[in-house]
Amino acid sequence: xxxxxxxxxxDAGTGTHTRFVSTATEPRARGREFGETWRAxxxxxxxxxxxxxxxxxxxxxxxxxxxxLAAVEAWAPYLxxxxxxxxxxxxxxxxxxxxxxxxxxxxxxxxxxxxxxxVVALREGDAEPVAAQNWDWYAGHAANWLEWEIPHANGGxxxxxxxYGIVGKIGVNDRGVGCLFNILHHRADTGxxxxxxxxxxxxxxxEAGTVADGLRIIGGARTSASTTITVVGxxxxxxxxxxxxxxxxxxxxxxxxxxGLLLHTNHFLSRPGADGDTEPRTDPDTLVRYEVxxxxxxxxxxDLSPAQALAALAGHxxxxxxxxxxxxxxxFRTLAAVRIDFATRRLDIHTGPPCRSHGDRPGPDGDRSGTxxx
Length: 374
Fold this sequence. Notes:
The chain is of the alpha+beta class. It has helices spanning about 25-35, 40-55, 60-75, 75-90, 95-100, 105-110, 195-205, 210-220, 280, 285-295, 305-315, and strands at about 5-10, 15-20, 115-120, 130-140, 145-150, 155-165, 170-175, 175-185, 225-235, 240-245, 250-255, 260-265, 330-340, 345-350. Helices cover about 30% and strands about 25% of the residues.
C-alpha cells in the first residue's frame, strides 16, 4: 500500500523495507494520516497482538487499553492525541491502538519472555559511535513493522523503526541522540497501568538533545514493565552512552566499560533490578548471547567498525542471529538488524537475519522456536 510521504527504502542487506514520512506535524492529524495510510497494516498488527495476548489469557483489551491511554495522557498528552488519531484513521477503537502501544506491559502481565542483542562502541578521535542491535520478535509479525520519519512543527525530526500503530521504538533524532531497545522481565512487573515503554522511547526521540536529556525523560516515567532503553549520543550530542534499565522500582543504569564498549541482551546488569530478574531462570539464552558478544568484542570499544558490529550480530554462536523454522509464526526470528548512523542521523536497516548480508548461513544453533519474544 502506498500513501502520502511513503517510499520503499532499499536496505543494505536482504532487500527492502517500508519507509513512511509523515507530512502532518500536529499530533492528532499526524496520527490520523498514519492510520489512514496504513489502515490494513495497523489492523493486521492489532489482530496479531489480540492473538498473542489471548494466548497469555488477556482477551478483553478495553481495560488494559484504557489504563494505558490514561497513563500516556498524563505523561505525554501529545502522544495520547497521536494514538487517538491513529485509531481514527485506522477505524479501530482507541483502546485497541493504546493496547498495542502497551504490548510490552500486557505481555509482562502474562510473563512472556524476550530477546534482542545490543552493541555500542563509543570509539575514539573523530569517529562517530557505533550503535546497533538485532530486533528479535515473532516470525508471524515480520510484515508488521516499518521505518517512520516524523517531522515536528519546530523543524526537528524523529526517525524510528516501529510496528504499525506503535508510536516509537528504536530510533534517532536530528540532534544526534538515538536509542536501542531490549526487553527485560522483573518479578515486580504488572499490567498496562504505567507509561508504555514504547511511548517513553518516542518522547525521548522527540525531545532529547543530549544523553542526559534522554535519561531525565526516562526517569520521569512511571513504568509498570521492564525494558532497557540504551541512550546513545553522536559527536554533536556529546558522544556518550548509558543503558537505562526500566522497571517498576527503577530505572537503573549501566555505563560503558573503560574502552567505551556497552553490551546488552535481556537480563538486568544493574542493582537492585537484578535482584528481581526472572529472565536468567526462564530464558537463560540471554546470558549466553551476552557472553558470546562480550568474548567477541572485548577491548573493541575504541575501534569497532559498523561492519564488525553487524558481523558480531550476524553470528550464530549462542543464538545471536535467530532463525525461525519455516511456517512457524510463533517462533523467534531476527526481523531486522538496525544501526544508528550518527553521521547522517538516520537508520541503517538490514531486513531479516543479518547473516544474510554477511555471507553467512544459519548454523544448527541458529534455529530457535518458542512462544515468547521481544
